[in-house]
């Protein structure tokens, strides 16, 4: 796909990623936004996403996003959904649906067919940001700001080139991107590794209260609403907890969940490859990748652990 060819006649372009935006969602949306602003100067372009974590304020142009989902037009000429199928772009879904032309760029295996009129879904890609780099036909239009946004997306979805979704192609693109000269060590430190004191405290608490089960093959931990309120924490403060749980020796599948309502939890799943957690999450209406997936589930903590365990156990047998 050449994204310029797909959108060049559009007067209005909308861009969205998934709810609870992560680094790849923000990086791919902003990278594409900055690029399209450059190559389609006459078009009105709007990014509609939820407010991301403060660490992403280092991306150029992010101050132009208003997070209130008030569209510049009810009917966009083109709407682009990134890093997600259309059903997970939240309040923007209706604008995607109403658009003249819908484009979906994603790397989730649970979105195999794509949900646009034109789809570029590559489950083997590390990130949507890698795919945005792919669809930029005229690479000479890339500048340091675009490169930085896409690099942020790639480092977040690959755990700084650590996860198995990192391919030689990912590394080549990253090499190309750092040649634009932004301060990448600082970017990795500030957006990926650095935690606030409170974030580290919650991480500590989640590790302390974690429970091993299935002969130590699985681990689970949970943070309830009361605890979040105690630390004055929001969902951004819980990023990374599930990956840390997964690093427990002997564990093949880690579950972390936080309470979103009386009987509702946002569940994150991570695996070392022995369990396909996309399959587990999809069974309950969520999705993701083989080694990283998510889903929102109803019930008590114990109901949810029981239901997940049954699906995980099926695969481990
Ligand atoms: P998380 O645990 O929320 O960090 O998500 C892990 C991976 O699964 C990310 O690639 C998410 O985009 C994806 N994911 C999380 N929740 C869902 C969902 N409900 N549907 C599809 N994909 C999801
Ligand atoms: Mn994402
Ligand atoms: Mn992604």
Can you describe what's shown?
The chain folds into two domains: 3-193, inorganic pyrophosphatase (n-terminal core) (Alpha-Beta Complex), CATH 3.90.1640; 198-316, Diaminopimelate Epimerase, Chain A, domain 1 (Roll). The chain starts with a helix and ends with a helix. The mean pLDDT is 97. 38% of the residues lie in helices and 19% in strands. The chain is built from twelve helices and eleven strands. With 317 residues, it is of the alpha/beta class. The protein has helices spanning 3-7, 23-39, 93-98, 128-135, 144-158, 168-178, 184-193, 197-208, 225-231, 241-246, 277-283, 301-316, and strands at 12-16, 44-47, 78-82, 101-106, 118-121, 211-213, 218-223, 253-261, 264-271, 287-288, 292-298. Helix 2 (23-39) runs parallel beside helix 4, helix 4 (128-135) runs antiparallel to helix 5 (144-158) and helix 5 crosses helix 7 (184-193). The longest helix has 17 residues, at 23-39. It binds adenosine monophosphate and manganese (II) ion (MN) (2 copies).
Outline the secondary-structure elements:
Blueprint lengths: L2 H5 L4 E5 L6 H17 L4 E4 L30 E5 L10 H6 L2 E6 L11 E4 L6 H8 L8 H15 L9 H11 L5 H10 L3 H12 L2 E3 L4 E6 L1 H7 L9 H6 L6 E9 L2 E8 L5 H7 L3 E2 L3 E7 L2 H16 L1
Parallel strand pairs: 1-2, 1-3, 3-4, 4-5, 7-8
Antiparallel strand pairs: 6-7, 8-9, 9-11, 10-11
Bound molecules: adenosine monophosphate and manganese (II) ion (2 copies).
Key attributes of the depicted protein:
five-stranded parallel β-sheet; globular; binds adenosine monophosphate; alpha/beta; Diaminopimelate Epimerase, Chain A, domain 1; binds manganese (II) ion; 317 residues; inorganic pyrophosphatase (n-terminal core)
């Amino acid at each position: 796909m050449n994204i310029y060819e797909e959108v060049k006649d559009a007067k209005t372009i909308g861009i969205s990623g998934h709810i609870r935006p992560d680094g790849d969602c923000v990086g791919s949306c902003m990278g594409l936004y900055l690029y399209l602003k450059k190559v389609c100067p006459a078009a009105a372009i709007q990014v509609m996403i939820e407010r991301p974590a403060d660490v992403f304020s280092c991306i150029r142009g992010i101050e132009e996003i208003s997070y209130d989902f008030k569209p510049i037009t009810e009917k966009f000429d083109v709407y682009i959904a990134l890093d997600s199928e259309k059903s997970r772009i939240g309040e923007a879904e209706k604008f995607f649906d109403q658009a003249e032309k819908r484009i979906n760029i994603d790397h989730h295996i649970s979105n195999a067919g794509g949900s646009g009129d034109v789809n570029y879904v590559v489950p083997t890609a590390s990130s949507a940001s890698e795919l945005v780099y792919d669809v930029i036909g005229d690479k000479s239009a890339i500048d340091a700001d675009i490169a930085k946004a896409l690099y942020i997306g790639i480092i977040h979805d690959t755990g700084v080139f650590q996860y198995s979704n990192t391919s030689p192609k990912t590394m080549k693109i990253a090499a190309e991107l750092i040649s634009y000269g932004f301060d990448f060590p600082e970017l990795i430190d500030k957006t990926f590794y650095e935690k606030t004191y409170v974030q580290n405290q919650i991480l500590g608490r989640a590790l302390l209260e974690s429970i091993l089960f299935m002969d130590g093959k699985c681990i689970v931990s949970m943070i309830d609403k009361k605890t979040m309120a105690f630390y004055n924490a929001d969902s951004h403060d819980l990023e990374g907890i599930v990956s840390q749980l997964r690093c427990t020796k002997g564990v093949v599948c880690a579950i972390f969940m936080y309470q979103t309502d009386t009987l509702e939890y946002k569940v994150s799943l991570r695996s070392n490859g022995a369990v396909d957690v996309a399959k587990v999450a999809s069974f309950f209406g969520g999705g993701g990748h083989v080694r990283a997936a998510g889903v929102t589930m109803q019930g008590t903590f114990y109901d949810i652990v029981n239901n997940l365990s049954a699906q995980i156990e099926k695969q481990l047998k």
